[in-house]
Amino acid sequence: MAEYFRVGTPTNDSERLGISKLRDELPEHFIVVGNFELQLPRRRNTLEYDAVVIGEWGVYTVEIKGWGGTIDGDQSRWHLEWGEVENPFIRIEQKAKALRDFLVRRVDGFPRELFCEAVVYLPRDDARVEVDDPRNERLVTHGEVWKYFVDEQVHRGPGLLNDAELRDRIRRTIHERAEPGEMGPQIPDYVVDEELDNVGRPYREYLGHHQLVKSRDRVRIKAYSMDPLLSRAEQQKKLNEAMRDLEALDSLKDNDYIAKAYDVRRDEGDELLFYLISEWVGRRTLGDFIDEDDPSDTSPRAMRRRVVAALHLARAVQYVHDNNVVHRNLHPDAAYLIDKEDRDVPLQLADFDYARLGHLQSIGGGLSAVGNEGYVAPEMWNSEPHDHRADIYSLGLILFELFVGEPLYRSIDDILNFDDIWAERRKRVPRAELQRRLGPMLTGSPDERTVTLHPLIDTLEDLLEELDRAAQPSGPIQVPAPPTSGFANRAGE
Length: 493
Hints:
The protein is α+β, with helices and mostly antiparallel strands. 32% of the residues lie in helices and 21% in strands.
């Protein structure tokens, strides 16, 4: 285990995971310095460092990213499953050069031949990088910490930093000049309470509250950072894209199924950082409900909970479509469970970042980064024109998972053979009337897909009445649901 010196606090779960792995997997004579800023000579702004590793053969500046899935791109941009980002090597190489210049000037006896290397570290075990970039030889992924920092450095010969005193001199020089990393968001009129784990999304997310409006409950704060290398026009375009979430919420206001839109604010200290602030209803999602549910429980009580959840979700999506909005990113974790007893509905739709506002008509392509993998309609995968029926397809997949207990698709091959997979697995849906409704929702051709959710809603309402009648004469079934799900007693009838 390496020696760890903490200056600041990791700002998210990805940094915590990455730094803990560096500490735990490196040899004991290595040093890890974590989460700090340096105000270096001749530089106007401070430089932020996730971690610096002082090893046997050199000093490494390490950029930790919590990205997973398939990543491709080039030397300028990386394409992730949720969007496009700047190639992280660009900035970490600048930081590595600046740090080496600082150490050469400040550390007595610093060997001129000692390198300071830029490293990008992806600690998640599902990251698959397919980027055409020679710098990938300095890319460390899950399980490669020892291999990169120890095994692959042996060819450099005896380590210049075998000298423990020199290693510590370097560490002290950094430590003496280092300041804790960012203080967190500085949002006018708002206080941030905590950061949420939001790995894999194009924003950071916080819980907070308004300093003055005491009647307002806790709020959800999405933090977006503009790329400073983009032109003003490109930055404005990115801002407009991010604003879709709040615009969609505002256009759907005054409905319990949709979060209330509150504010848009700039950070007080960074004009490239802005925040979208909306209502917060709880941490748990429909995905959590599905994970906690026991699919082997086919009792009327269990069936009723699932039907109530499906009914409310279908009503929510139909309301969105009735107001000329296409969500385009429906998946189980986009529906948040409401843990407030004064609400008439048990869930709320969120994450309208990819929403399209306007008339329900065909929309152009170029949307390969839109949507959550496994729930995206075929026409969106193919960047073909699409409309609200893309949401209907996604909803069909969610309902299959809700009633069966596992996703309809288990692999990429399944997704590519969607019609055959549905034909093979449709009988796992517990009721024939539900199978008949889900089939037209899950067809691969949007022209053959159902165009409205009203027939599904009618079927779910009839099924709910049937389940309640079966419980007579003792009255409607009243059964505890999984914690705070709200689906046992709020049928919305």
